[in-house]
Amino acid sequence: MNQGLVGMGRLSATLKDFMGTSLGSFSGMAIDPTTWRKAGNGYAATLYSLPDRGYNTGDLYSDYQGRLVRFDLSFTPYTGAGLPAATTSQSQITLTPTGDGIKLTDFNGTATTGLDPAAGTTAQNGYTLPSPTGTGTRRVALDAEAVAFLPDGSFYVGDEYTAGIYLFDKSGKMIGYIAPPAALQPMTGGQLNYNSIAAPNTGRRNNQGMEAVALSPDGTRLIAILQSATIQDGAGNAGNRGNTRVLIYDVSASRLPTTPVEHYILQLPLLDDTGKGGAVNKTAAQSEVVAINNHQFLVLSRDSAGYGVDGTLPEMYKSILLVDTKGATNLAGTAYETTTKPVSTGKTLDPSITPVQQGELVNMLNTTQLARFGMNINTATPAGGTNLTLSEKWEAMALMPALDEAKPQDFFLFVANDNDFQTTDGVMPGYTYDAGRNNDTMLMAFRLTLPTAVDPLFEAAMLRNGAAVSALAGETVTGAADQGIGQVTTHLGVLRTEALSGAGRGKAATDGEARVWLSGLYGFGDLEGDTVQNDTTNYAGAVGVDLLIDGGFTFGLAFGLQGGSNEPDGGFKVDHDGYAISAYGQYVVGGFSVAGAYSYMPMNLDDIRRPSAYGLSGVGSTDAAAHVFAGEAAYHLDLGGVKAGPLVNLGHVRGRIDGYTERGAAGGNVTYAGRSFRHSTAGVGAEAILPLTGVSLTGRAVYTSTFDTEGNDAGLRLSSVAGGATTAVAVPTGETDTVTLGLRAQGAVGAVGWYAGYDLDIGLDGGLGNTLTTGVSLGF
């Protein structure tokens, strides 16, 4: 849904860029998504404009180096009443030159040029590329028309001369080239001829090359669209150029694939450029593409009328199309691609080919919307229009999320023009000029609702941080389970020391004696595993009842409460609280002891916080539960007052985390599928008991290792994307081996037993964990 035009902006045609030449406006543009942020009532970001080949008049071409020009973008949407018919009314978008940019060079590091190459070529890096003759150092002729950035700062540029796609590194040096398939290569007399004046025999038309490139949101596909039909696909007048090519390359394994994996026909709108309803004589050629998912694209289709063109032809068609490749015939690898076999005769498409689906989403010539910002489409009075008449060439687009929690699938589509370097104060390398008019650079912003659009940064953050926060939630459940049952196992250790040393009770145990006990625990640590670094705080308390049976047996039940927080660096967080119901038993005879415990622990996970994109955080809550088993066996030898010996233990956690959906990250909110997991550990070590007068000291050292995990994946999807598929991602287990050093003192005051202990967990992957415990017991 088109919510309407919500802003415009302009830059003076007399502006010079960071290289001192006239600003060439926008044949392509890109907004750096990592800089896009809300700023007060508006938005701010860094924007790059891509000019084409420099000023030309059909017989005059410029030795113009390709470049990207950097701007600071500020945008405040406007939905109020109509504004006056004045240039000051187009002020919702402001661009401030930063004074720098990126200069484009060829494979040899030599500046590219905008000069028409005629039949000249140069061989670089194994490719035959256009290069003008008689200009000294041979270099690549570039007519840049579209740009698409990769996450590492490198970028693709669609080229008019070759109908191919160049890859540049982040410094602007050419590092790769994707040659067009045979059907698109401009061939004259059986030879490549990249000139822009004389039409080739087959392949791309003059000045109708690779006008549009874009990356899919997941970064696996490169979409490229020829501006209009090839020579062989539409001979005759300009009304026969509607069947153009859409090429889709798989760039997931290689950034420089040699052939497309998908190849479709897009049927562009046809029109009578006089506006009188006569015979079709023009094609509304396409000028830019933005991918909203892997099969749906926004395509800018336009006529060639408007301010900047001599004459009074009316503005008939400037629209944003929604294009869908589903159900279309894939021509990849067929003779339509590998040879010059035509897909159409005149306007008539080969009946064996099903074109992509398309529909108009935005009519840029909506006079009511334009008038609100003081603009018009009147090219008749005065002839050719004024600087308030919508200009001819709109060629650049960028799509950014509105970051609106209430409308998570709303986006701003920025559209910019190419002013053809038209200024009365022109500067090109080696000369100055007067183009006879000042055709300002202009931008428009439309607010769109796109239910199926996937924002690339939101998706990337989901895949990167969704797995991490899922791991953190699992570790929180496991950690809470260990702390909860840890109070029971610590109590069993107190009973063992008591039985072996006699310290810790006010009177000797009798058969059938019952005893109530209370314990408390506080832990904190930063143990590191194979996921985000943990920074935990835990607290727990428990109350239990023991039944002591003659012969060394103890059985009991306990109820506990626990809570805490896991808040590592990087904006992650999980809080938890819950309770535990436990049953346990122990047998001590001579120096041998064996103990086991089971706990069931339902818990709430609150404030589950994950860094999303654009400075936002996804926050959610859910329920979880764990079944926990723990067992330990030990043998203590009497070593002359000290009782010491080996011990082994086993632990097992079987957990479940219910599914939930985040809030707070607008279009980046993630829905997490429920997941179950398990986590098993084994430990081996030694324990020593030193009885003193009225007190026993128990020290232990235990090495613990994880030996079994399961459920190490999670299902994620962007919650607001209509029809969005769930993606399974690998969840790090968070496992880390530890060495635990513990010391506990215990004794009795009258009938009340007491203990206090400290455990230090040393992570073999780094970090420390600390646990303080204390408890009392009373027999009756």
TrEMBL record:
Residues 509-780 form the Autotransporter domain. It holds the Pfam family Phytase-like. Signal peptide: none annotated. PROSITE patterns: AUTOTRANSPORTER (PS51208). InterPro entries: Autotransporte_beta, Autotransporte_beta_dom_sf, Phytase-like_dom. This is Autotransporter outer membrane beta-barrel domain-containing protein. It comes from Zavarzinia compransoris. The lineage of its organism: Bacteria, Pseudomonadati, Pseudomonadota, Alphaproteobacteria, Rhodospirillales.
